[in-house]
Amino acid sequence: MGKPKAVVNREVCLACGGCVSVCPEDAIMLVAGKAVVDKKGCISCGICVKTCPVAAISFEEVTK
Amino acid sequence: MRYDVVVVGSGPAGSVTARFAAERGAKVLIVERRSEVGVPVLCAEGISKKVDSYNLVEGTKWKAASMAGARIFSPDRTMVRLSAELAGAETGYVLNREFFDKELARGALKAGAKLLVNTLATGLITDGGRIKGVRIKRFGEEFDVEADIVVGADGVESRVGKWAGINTTLKPHDLETCAQYTLSNVDFEEGYSDFYLGKQIAPGGYVWVFPKGKDVANVGIGVLASLSKPGEAKRLLDEFIASHPDLKDGEPLRFLAGAVPVAKPIEATRDNLVLVGDAARQVDPITGGGLMASIEAGKVAGETIGKAVELQRFDKELLSEYEERLRQTLYRKFERNYVVKETMLGFDDKTLNMLADSLKDYNFEELSTLSLIKALVSKHPSLLPKLKPLLKAR
């Protein structure tokens, strides 16, 4: 089990770009109109989760 | 493909920069990742009437409503009324951004610029560390666009600045996370943009009601990301609307989420590179308004780029004339307003109520720093120490 990583619910995301601009690791991008988290880059800081205006980002346990 | 200038992003900052560069003879390409200029709208759509003096848009479709002024409500709903001139860069017109952006883009194209929609910039092309264009992807195919200058007008989530090694990451303290409905079936005082302040209403931000026409208004919220929780912006906005007698029966025509930098402007030039608009954090840190700033900065950026192309000089020294010119105008105001933002963040609801109570009968037509301070402290002397940082900022 790794640390929980941020994951975007694509059905909720409205692509405002807030999470992209606050991610300290530059690990979120807008791809085809939705935010996408690069799990390798994610340090589980939670800034994007708190920032999202519509609660589209949450932590998900990743199994390895 | 080879151009003098490639602009990434067709929002106001990109189109205005492209227009002024093209007017000076530069060969300009704008690339837009979306399939339509101005859509989706990610904005409260307020702008100062100063925009008229730039003569950049024609027709009337871009304008939804004209504002006489602003009404600011403190947490206990004490109201301070300001004329549009005093209310600042966001009060004047309420726009239809989908038309406004197209008008600005049309102006750039008329000046000779080219535009590709459905076109994603995927990275910079460099040669020995020197920027020499952007890689683009459209309809599944990748191309190189060579250019002497790359302009990043790619918004709050700017990639172009990052590619060039500029730290564009915003601290949560410097970002407003936003949500907005365009509501029909609402009531408002015609000609007034409303702002509601308060820690319970919108921590570190405010709720706005911008009338767009007959019983339609943009009703939105900005919450400082450092004070936010998951989904906070939408949740607080829903609560506000449900509790407001003039808004609670509103039906949404549109919902949007947004993100607005409320930071100090960052480094906006490198050799062969220019950032403009939200990408350069050219936003008023108090109001979060960036439309007028994007236009003002875009004009200066475009003129400087035009000069660079004439002189065939693309080094930072020349390009930073753009930032130098803004330092005398726009940036001076932003630096000052950043201090105001910091000071206001320290105000509790009681302080905001006292401020509004002091100002509600103040005659803003006779505005002077001295008379303003007199008005503020004569009713509530305890405000004086709280306002001290603002006096230093002048």
- Biggest sheet strand order of chain A reads 1-4
Question: What fold name stands as the CATH topology of chain A?
Answer: Alpha-Beta Plaits
Largest sheet of chain A: 2 strands, antiparallel
How much strand of chain A? 25-35%
Mean model confidence by pLDDT of chain B: 94
Tell me the structural class of chain A: alpha+beta
Identify the CATH class of chain A. Answer: Alpha Beta
At the fourth CATH level, what is the homologous superfamily of the largest domain in chain B? Answer: FAD/NAD(P)-binding domain
Using only C-alpha atoms, the radius of gyration of chain B works out to: 21 Å
Number of self-contained structural domains of chain B: 3
Silhouette of chain B: globular
Euclidean distance between termini CA atoms of chain A:
6 Å
Tell me about the largest β-sheet of chain B: 8 strands, mixed
* Helix and strand element order of chain A: EHEEHE
Q: What can you see in these coordinates?
A:
The complex is a heterodimer of chains A (64) and B (394). Chain A is of the alpha+beta class and 64 residues long. Chain A is built from two helices and four strands. A two-stranded antiparallel ribbon of chain A has the order 1-4. The longest helix of chain A is centred in the N-terminal third of the chain and has 5 residues, at 18-22. The mean pLDDT of chain A is 91. Chain B is of the alpha/beta class and 394 residues long. Chain B has twelve helices and 18 strands. Chain B folds into three domains: 2-45 and 97-170 and 263-328, FAD/NAD(P)-binding domain (3-Layer(bba) Sandwich), CATH 3.50.50; 65-95 and 172-261, D-Amino Acid Oxidase, subunit A, domain 2 (D-Amino Acid Oxidase, Chain A, domain 2); 337-393. In chain B, the strands form three sheets. In chain B, strands 1, 2, 8, 9, 10, 11, 17 and 18 form an eight-stranded mixed β-sheet that branches. The radius of gyration of chain B is 21 Å and the shape is globular. Chain A binds chain B through residues 14-18, 20-24, 26, 29-30, 47, 49-55, 57-58, and chain B through 42, 155-159, 162, 168-172, 175, 177-179, 223, 225, 228-234, 255-259, 261.
